[in-house]
Design goal:
Shape: globular
Structural class: alpha/beta
CATH architecture of the largest domain: Alpha-Beta Barrel
Distance between the termini: 79 Å
CATH superfamily of the largest domain: Glycoside hydrolase/deacetylase
Number of helices: 9
Low-confidence stretches: 9-19
Strand order of the largest sheet: 1-4-7-6-16-14
Bound molecules: zinc ion
Number of domains: 3
Largest sheet: 6 strands, mixed
Helix content: 10-25%
Radius of gyration: 26 Å
């Protein structure tokens, strides 16, 4: 009986499989479930999908819904995706601000097929360096060194984000973060009130206070679009992103222009371009996914935060949380916000609490960095750091951690750059051995390490 059931299930699986060719986790349907039209799709290459629509009795243009897998081995690089018609013209694609992997493609009249594909970024997809590339194990001196997984050799990272440039960010979130010594990331909507719109720019009413916060530099500003209303067409979308990016650059002159972008939940965006176009042009990275919402309405936020933070520490990962308005009767009460910050404080020795751009920079620089031994003997070694990131944008110092042989006394170890300047180092432990940690700029340079008896 059991064998028979297995056989039936097996045949059923084959029959279902025959009806829908393997699209590598991609789902393609018509947006209107009552449509008489039929849609078929074929995966031509791992990131190229050919879609055809047979209209049958339908005379209206059809809209296709495409869900790309956004995690796992078959995940598409959603920021690099464009949709074209048979003539190669890019089609307008509709998405929501925080789910770029879900596409709605309204086919223009007369268009019955399209191709969904990825555009490689300019310069191609870069391959990250390996753990081995980022480490030196030198038997001659007995030194083992590597680029730390997180800044200062911390176990995990935490970013604390605030969306929508609400007045309580300035009146509550900033002073409370300052009292803990934590750095926050503020996603702002710096656009002025628009003619014909009833939406009042809360940012606009406190422009001077935001500019003062930006100038001080304790916290990070990030792009949440100019008006938090979505974008309709390439020109409008570029204005919504570009205007906010430039407002941030004007408030932070002389600093790296790289900032986080989050187009906002509940917003709709229509463009023929890939998200990558906007990310590259305005020096952004997409910071909309994998964040835990801390609004009280989600329930049990403080204990939930304790649980996810501890999980991230166990796994050595980047924990991202985000708030809206802080205060009694608002999205998060002040008491709940403080309770979560207390939990972060309890875990502070394990955590690198930093801005989202700081953390993104560190990860990108680390993936582009290599350490190479130049020469060594029992009392010294010299090495080269290489880092392929653009120094104007990527300015987050990298941490090198170095375990020294038992014969070396930590206070007698001196680290110098190529100009002979001594680099300060913090003593600690690395895998049980005496160790030093020191920061270096993410640029190609030679360093020397000496020990005196
Ligand atoms: Zn928002």
């Amino acid at each position: 009986m059991k064998a028979f059931a297995t056989l039936v299930l097996g045949l059923l699986a084959i029959a279902l499989h025959a009806q829908s060719p393997d699209l590598g986790g991609v789902k393609v349907t018509l947006a209107d479930p009552s449509s008489q039209a039929a849609v078929t799709a074929v995966l031509v290459t791992p990131f190229q999908l050919q879609i055809n629509v047979a209209p049958n009795s339908e005379t209206k243009p059809q809209t296709i819904r495409i869900d790309l897998p956004n995690s796992g081995p078959k995940a598409w690089p959603a920021a690099d995706v464009v949709v074209r018609d048979a003539g190669g013209n890019a089609l307008l694609v509709r998405r929501t601000g925080i789910e770029w992997f879900k596409l709605l493609v309204p086919l223009p009249a007369g268009v019955m097929s399209c191709v969904v594909e990825t555009l490689p970024p300019s310069g191609g997809w870069t391959k990250p360096t390996t753990e081995k590339d980022r480490a030196i194990q030198d038997p001659t001196s007995g030194v083992k060194m590597r680029i730390a997984k997180w800044h200062e050799g911390r176990v995990a990272a935490l970013s604390i984000r605030f969306d929508d440039s609400h007045p309580t960010h300035l009146s509550k979130a900033v002073p409370i973060l300052d009292s803990y010594g934590f750095r926050g990331t503020f996603m702002i909507n710096p656009g002025a009130s628009e003619p014909g719109s009833r939406r009042v720019s809360e940012f606009g009413q406190q422009r001077a206070a935001w500019a003062a916060l930006a100038k001080q530099g304790k916290h990070e500003l990030a792009n949440h679009s100019a008006h938090h209303r979505g974008g309709f067409g390439d020109v409008d979308m570029e204005a919504e992103i570009g205007e906010a990016a430039q407002a941030i650059w004007r408030m932070t002159p002389g600093r790296s222009r790289l900032t986080a972008l989050n187009l906002g939940g509940g917003t709709r965006w229509e463009t023929t371009r890939s998200l990558r176009y906007y990310l590259d042009k305005y020096h952004h990275f997409d910071a909309s996914e994998n964040s835990t919402g801390m609004d009280d309405s989600y329930g049990n936020r403080v204990e939930n935060f304790r649980r996810i933070l501890e999980q991230h520490i166990q796994r050595g990962l980047w924990c991202r949380i985000h708030y809206h308005y802080i205060g009694d009767g608002l999205s998060s009460t002040e008491a709940n916000f403080r309770a979560a910050m207390d939990i972060a404080k309890q875990h502070q020795t394990d955590l690198w609490i930093a801005g989202m751009a700081d953390i993104h920079k560190y990860l990108t620089e680390r993936d582009a960095a290599k350490l190479t031994l130049i020469k060594s003997d029992a009392q010294q070694l010299s090495f080269k750091l290489a880092c392929a990131t653009d120094a104007a944008l990527y300015d987050q110092p990298l941490t090198v951690e170095m375990a020294v042989p038992p014969a070396w006394k930590l206070p007698n170890v001196v680290i110098k750059d190529a100009q002979g300047t001594v680099i300060p180092a913090k003593p600690g432990k690395l895998e049980g051995a005496d160790a030093l940690r020191f920061d270096v700029p993410p640029r190609e340079a030679d360093y020397s390490i000496n020990v005196t008896p």
